Structures are given as C-alpha cells and as structure tokens.
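Task card 7
Instruction: Convert sequence to structure tokens.
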Amino acid sequence: MSKIAIVGAGKTGRGFLGRLLKEADREMIFIEQDQKLVEALNEAGTYVVHFFGNERESLSVDHFRAYTWENVSFEDVELIFVSVGGQNLRNVGEHLAGYMDANRRRYIITCENASHPSVTLKSALGAGRQVHVSEATVFCTTVEGEGLDIYSENYPCLQFNADLLEGYEPGIEQLRPVEHFSDFLTRKLYTYNAASCIIAYLGWAKGYTNYGDAANDEEILALLDRNYQVTNKVLCQEFGYEKEDQEEFALLSKKKFCDRTIEDTVSRNARDPQRKLAAGERIMGPIRLLHKYGEDASVLERTAAAAILYQAPAEDPWTELQAGKSCEQILEEICGVSPEEELFSHIMKYVKEIKDDLLF
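Output:
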C-alpha cells in the first residue's frame, strides 16, 4: 500500500488530514518548509490530536516521516494533499513539478478554502505530466496546542471534487468524493457561511464581542434555527439533496458555531462585509433563493441590514467605504438590490430598526 503525502504540516495538515489518515491506518509523509518543525516531528515520532470539549478520546498520530523539499522522495506516493495558504500554492506547484514523473499517474487534492486552488496549482505544475488536481473544502477547525499537539473539532471527513480526479477513488472512508462540486460549494456557502454571518452580524448588533456568546444567545439561536429550517428546504428543492442529509449538514455547522470551547471573536467572523454582502454571496445568495421558492427570508434580511451597518476599525477599508456611501447605495451597488424591489424596502426597514435599537 502506497504512502500518502501531505504538503504542509500546520494545523490542518497534521491536525485534520493527519488525523483522518491515522484513523484510516495509512502511512504518511509530511513535506514542510520549516526545518525546525520537520526536525521536531521526526524526533518525536508522534503527536496528539485533542478534541474540543473532550467529545472523544484524544488520538495519537504516528507512522509518519517529515521532510523538507530538499530531501523528500515521492517514489512510493500516489496521492498528495496540499494544505498551505492560498498565496503559497504556486510555489508548492513549482516544487512538485520537479518530482512528478511524466510517465506516472499522480493525484493531488488541495485543502485550502481559496478561490479555485486546483487551477492555481495545476498551472504552476505545468503541462506534460499525468497529474490530476482536485480540490476539497475544509470544515474542520483546528488550533495549535502545546508542542506538536493540535486541538480539533471532531469533523468526520474531507469532501473533495470527484469530477476532477477522473474516476480515481482513494479507497479511504474518511475521504468523501462529491460530484457536482460547485453545487456543493454553494450548499456550504448558503448553509455554513450564511449561518456564521447571522451569528456575527446580529451578535454585533446585540453588543457581543465573543463569538460563542453570540452563538448561544437565545434570540439569535431562535433566528438561526428558523433560517436553517427554510434554507434546508430550498437547498433540497434547488439541488435535490435528501432532507435528512441536508439537516445533518446544517446541524454540524450549528454544533461547530455553538461550541464555546472553540475560541473565536465576532469581529473575525464579521470582517470584510463588502465581500460577504456581494450579490450571490453568503447573505444575498440565499436570500434570492428563498424568495425564488416563496420562503421567509426575514432572518437573512435582518442580517444584511446589520452587515450594512457593521462598524469595523477606523483603518479598515469597509469603514472608508461606509463613509462615502449611504446605506441605500451600499444595498444597491454592493448587494445588487434595486430600489424598485420589495426586498430593498425589507432590508431598509431592518436598517432603521437597528439604528433605533428595536431589532430585538
């Protein structure tokens, strides 16, 4: 059985991917540019993944070796995961290109929630190689612990784009191939990311700074559940998902957001409202879908209003944008809502309520 390579031995690389491969009893190698981290991993020979809230017993990860680019070999490797920041993908692709034999088929899965990471990596690899590059979306939250240890959410699997691997199946239960991956990303955006915005922006409107506190506020929780109910319904109608499957998907996101052992802030989740308010994005996209099927979009309409009013630090680009545009202009120009639409008046009503402190 061939080894599996993980490029990037950071939080996701060793805390999520390493943990999944350990659960699958697969031998792995890490490729890491940090020489000190490589030495520490090889000297220890093991590290521990602890789970938030002690939801399950901690897991020791072993049966690995770590290398830098200077001394790694891919001779016994067929499947490669790339877990680095989006800005580093091109550099990784250029390094990998030197190791990819033109006569041998390889499979790469990028594990970075960037825009089209597989395209960036494949471009850097260049032509003339039998390399199929796919991409995954990472739902699992991981944070650094003491030494090499990681604290992690107990997320069960990694979903990846099956279409880009042209029929290749890793044969590992924890790796889930997903067809029609662009629809799956929309599902994530309208379920996970939309729910995060509800908590962040309505939490800000209520004066919260701690994300866990906002997520467990009774009024916000009631609105969150109301939105899950209608969003689950329309996603099943639009994409044909099974009701139970979508409900489980949504519950995993709620469990993640409400877990107080995951330390997070409202400001981190509320940053870049100009991006999150864009037409088709995580707030306006599901609003439009809910309207398409005649469902109640009021929770997300409130969220849009709170996002329009969100106060970022003085030096933030959002603050400068707000200074030059009225709420009505933001709603029309950034959110893509025409003043003639009924939706325009709905959101502006909530804008007034937040300004008058009447939203809750």
